[in-house]
């Protein structure tokens, strides 16, 4: 079925996230009308131009032949339309041709891009990362000659991190960068899993590459960041001769077939340094924060798309007698078990959307807030929420896509129906941009302990404040009670993971991240219900129902989740590989 | 990677399930040596003959051309080897050529068949259903001429239930059966999703078909069961002329590509009645109990296969520094988060295996137990556990296959790795043989209320008895405590679903089934730990660790799950379709 842009839900999530307060602080002329107009226009573009290509992207996919990659049918034209519509440059600095909108607005637009066509969305998403890297760390030449082309979308960008032996562990990178004696470098090595590493949709591709100088220190402190364009760029900024780099193949993947995932060979490729020597990993991490949040949004997006298709099917498909329908055969939507499943999908989507948009607004506030104290507080909370936004939302993407298949019954397993594609596409998001286990370790290892736990404490205090507001509200009393039990469980678990460093905390990392997401997601739903309280329309009234359902089906499990994660790692440490073998 | 038959885990699950007590009661000469020998031989056959075809079955699959289906490469030969090895006839009545082993033994063997090659396993699994139907309800002619060929495996069987408008609701079946005036019938209609509906691996196919006589009452009370062979069977039992039925196409599916899923056209096909007129649904339900349990076992099987591959990868793949390894790079198995994930997968597999094998032994006891009271009690508990075995185990199949992909990181998303196939294959099991939502409704609607709740009460009483035994055991004290909280939560929830008929109970059906599976699964693990207590080997000692891990990560959530499901359905009833639309 076709995609419908979830404008009102996105607008609500932005509102809850505090986006309206940014208006006037942004360096663009952002006002409420602009926000609404941008969301509407993005909705129309994604519905009309990108969604219709999602299927052919899956079925035909990108192709590799004779050392070149051809984008899936229609994708190159769609990319040019995307660029022509200005969608590539929403949040970029106007100095380099951007429109200076907020990051949060851009995220909202990208949610629709990913929902309409996740494989397509990866191309501009990776370009965003390159824009960010050059904006923060690029040389003047790079800013003048390269950045505007990336902002406009004439050229695209990639991130070349992973090598066969270096996935989660970037310290193991071996790609070599040798000075060419003229201020530049020559890169030699192999990179894998390079998203949109080659294609025919833009006139040049700017590869950002992590590599190591011959005399660099070992480990992460010897990694530098380089820019290696597909076609060498002359001093007028024109692309010319081909560089000594090429795609060796593309992967045959479970999903996102429209996104070419390349093995890239650098064979003495000419490259320029970006940022400081041996500080490449830190530069890359700046980009990765944004990319991780974007991937979280992909989780929301694919869940939204899967939900929409399941919801539509629940109205079209008729089967049996249902307690909530007088018709026979009744639409699936009349069956309580189906409706519960749909409501749970929807509630989790709104919870994850709330977390992602909140993190996006925090990224803006970290730049735009009037005082340094506010900016620092926003940045700290952004850093705390980023691994949760990434991992929790992408897990939900998989879960909701799976429920979407289930609601279709036998039809869900037939590829023509489309539900199966979402189930396949969704599966990559918990893996790339830092596997969800890495996110969980980042959360307990680097984030929860920031400022001696004060960043998480402040977040929990805000949750308590909402709980106090909800207590007097008869409609949301049960939500307040379960949210309170949930946040207390999170506080207990937080104290425990801070006290228990080492294996105990590492073994608890994933359940802890799940608990944090469950509770913060419940807080988002509670505030969405608060914000729509009193309105009489069906949509507004459904928000309180979603918050209550989530409180019963998700938040009620929080105390048990906290108890379990505090068991410690002794059993895990003692078990042997052989004991688990068949 | 190759499949390893999980013999010791299967033997333990059979022991816990009470299989040893059946020895001597079975109508075959079953003894402990036979049990061990059969499991060993089945393990060898599945490892050597079936597992190597799993990949080509996925990549090439079954093919449809010119009105005929060709099995995937190697599958027809493998089927003949399967039949020649006697694997098709394990539990069938020796009077018709079977070996008279227990159903539970057969299930254990089929778990290995499905794990090695789920798409292949469906062919003999469907034949089992046809054997069961003819054994119970066939005419003398059918028993003499058809049954022995199905038992030997020379011919295969299918179940033709679903029609485009009749999936979960079999009352909507419209396939017509018209008397031919000579004691037979002519079938006309279209059936969909017919597993192994056509192929070239056996010399005849016996279709069991639900259809309706022209003057039959409407609804489920007008459905009869027919036998329509692909090739008509003469009075000497020889297949001759082709019948007027044919596959119209095969489906393009998410997974199990080696299993041809046919649209079947019956164009005046000659058929014989099986059982009583208008009682076909009841006859079919007898088969479906067995088939549902088999599908539950498929869930265990695909989870086992996915787990094995992830476990092997966790030893081969090295990445980063790990707290539980002195090596750099360390094997993934040295990382607490990876090990926790693997242990949780393993614990859930053993819990589900325990439930399925217990249900299998109950099916045997329902036939073989010495007294009628024992047989009735066994049958009632078998009926109670069947929807749980089916739904809970297949949900775990999907969950574990998804975790298996995750442990592989980026490699998991690449089809060549193999983990993705399990993720795709696993997804069908929660859907077919009664979607899991239907199982949940069966559980709360027909099963939990049996004998005024006494069947579930007796099960919970057995769980309490185990808890009392565990209390004195220092190793399993925490398991006892969490199992007790879990079973009390289940008891509360049981009372509630029995009291709350209608929408409230229907809305709670899926969470209730999940709760029941979580608690009964925890009971299985506790008893596996009891049974291996005291032994010093790694495998035995891991059982207590698995029970504790599961108690913390799963059972600890039971009280919250119970609380949430008792919220009632008012919010679901009130929400409108439009409120959920984008």
UniProtKB/TrEMBL annotation, chains A, B:
Taxon lineage: Bacteria, Pseudomonadati, Pseudomonadota, Alphaproteobacteria, Caulobacterales
PANTHER family from the UniProt entry: ACYL-COA DEHYDROGENASE (PTHR42803), BROAD-SPECIFICITY LINEAR ACYL-COA DEHYDROGENASE FADE5 (PTHR42803:SF1)
Gene3D superfamilies associated with the record: Acyl-CoA dehydrogenase/oxidase, N-terminal domain (1.10.540.10), Butyryl-CoA Dehydrogenase, subunit A, domain 2 (2.40.110.10), Butyryl-CoA Dehydrogenase, subunit A, domain 3 (1.20.140.10)
UniProt cross-references to InterPro entries, sorted A to Z: Acyl-CoA_dh-like_C_dom, Acyl-CoA_Oxase/DH_mid-dom, Acyl-CoA_Oxase/DH_mid-dom_sf, AcylCo_DH-like_C, AcylCo_DH/oxidase_C, AcylCoA_DH/ox_N, AcylCoA_DH/ox_N_sf, AcylCoA_DH/oxidase_NM_dom_sf
Family membership: Belongs to the acyl-CoA dehydrogenase family.
Domain spans labelled Acyl-CoA oxidase/dehydrogenase middle: 159-267
Protein name: Alkylation response protein AidB-like acyl-CoA dehydrogenase
Pfam family, one: Acyl-CoA_dh_1
Species of provenance: Phenylobacterium koreense
Domain Acetyl-CoA dehydrogenase-like C-terminal, chain residue ranges per copy: 460-573
Domain Acyl-CoA dehydrogenase/oxidase N-terminal: from-to ranges: 37-154
Boundaries of every Acyl-CoA dehydrogenase/oxidase C-terminal domain copy: 278-445
Cofactor: FAD
Keyword Ribonucleoprotein belongs to the record: no
Keywords attached to this entry: FAD, Flavoprotein, Oxidoreductase
Keyword ATP-binding: no
Domain of life according to the entry: Bacteria
């Amino acid at each position: 079925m076709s995609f419908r842009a979830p404008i009102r839900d996105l607008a609500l999530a932005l509102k809850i996230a505090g986006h309206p307060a940014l208006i006037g602080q942004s360096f663009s002329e952002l006002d409420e009308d602009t926000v609404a107009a941008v969301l509407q226009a993005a909705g129309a573009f994604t519905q009309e131009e990108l969604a219709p290509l999602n299927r052919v992207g899956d079925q035909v996919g990108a192709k590799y032949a004779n050392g070149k990659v051809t984008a899936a049918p229609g994708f190159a034209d769609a990319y040019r339309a995307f660029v022509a519509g200005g969608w590539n440059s929403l949040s970029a600095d106007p100095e380099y041709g951007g429109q200076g909108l907020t990051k949060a607005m851009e995220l909202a637009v990208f949610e629709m891009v990913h929902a309409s066509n996740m494989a397509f969305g990866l191309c501009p998403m990776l370009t965003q990362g390159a824009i960010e890297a050059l904006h923060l760390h690029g040389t003047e030449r790079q800013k003048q000659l390269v950045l505007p082309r990336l902002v406009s979308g004439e050229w695209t960008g990639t991130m070349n991190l992973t090598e066969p032996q270096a996935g989660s562990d970037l310290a193991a990178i071996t790609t070599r960068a040798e000075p060419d004696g003229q201020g530049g470098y020559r890169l030699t090595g192999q990179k894998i899993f390079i998203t949109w590493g080659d294609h025919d949709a833009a006139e040049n591709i700017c590869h950002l590459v992590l590599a190591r100088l011959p005399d660099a220190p070992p480990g992460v402190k010897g990694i530098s960041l380089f820019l290696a364009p597909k076609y060498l760029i002359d001093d007028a900024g024109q692309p010319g001769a081909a560089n000594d780099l090429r795609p060796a193949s593309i992967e045959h993947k479970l999903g996102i077939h429209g996104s070419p995932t390349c093995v890239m060979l650098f064979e003495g490729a000419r490259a320029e340094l970006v940022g400081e020597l041996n500080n490449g990993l830190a530069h890359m991490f700046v980009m990765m924060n944004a990319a991780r949040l974007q991937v979280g949004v992909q989780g929301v997006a694919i869940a939204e798309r899967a939900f929409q298709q399941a919801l539509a099917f629940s109205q079209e498909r008729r089967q049996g007698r249902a307690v909530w329908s007088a018709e026979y055969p009744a639409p699936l939507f009349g069956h309580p078990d189906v409706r519960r499943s749909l409501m749970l999908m929807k509630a989790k989507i709104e919870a994850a959307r709330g977390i992602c948009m909140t993190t996006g607004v925090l990224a803006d506030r970290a730049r735009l807030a009037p005082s340094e104290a506010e900016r620092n507080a926003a940045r700290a909370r952004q850093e705390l929420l980023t691994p949760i936004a990434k991992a929790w939302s992408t897990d939900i993407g998989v879960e909701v896509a799976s429920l979407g298949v289930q609601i279709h019954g036998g039809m869900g397993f037939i590829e023509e129906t489309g539900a199966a594609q979402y189930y396949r596409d969704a599966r990559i998001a918990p893996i790339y941009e830092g596997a969800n286990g890495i996110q969980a370790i980042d959360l307990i290892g680097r984030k929860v302990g920031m400022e001696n736990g004060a960043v998480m404490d402040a977040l929990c205090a805000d949750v308590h404040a909402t709980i106090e507001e909800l207590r007097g509200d008869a409609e949301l009393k049960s939500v307040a009670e379960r949210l309170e039990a949930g946040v207390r469980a999170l506080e207990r678990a937080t104290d425990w993971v801070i006290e228990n460093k080492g294996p105990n905390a590492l073994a608890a990392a994933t359940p802890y991240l799940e608990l944090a997401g469950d509770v913060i997601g419940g807080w988002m739903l509670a505030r969405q219900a608060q914000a729509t309280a009193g309105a009489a329309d069906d949509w507004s009234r459904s928000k309180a129902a979603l918050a209550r359902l989530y409180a019963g089906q998700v938040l009620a499990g929080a105390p048990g989740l906290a108890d379990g994660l505090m068991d410690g790692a002794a059993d895990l440490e003692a078990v042997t590989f052989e004991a688990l073998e068949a």
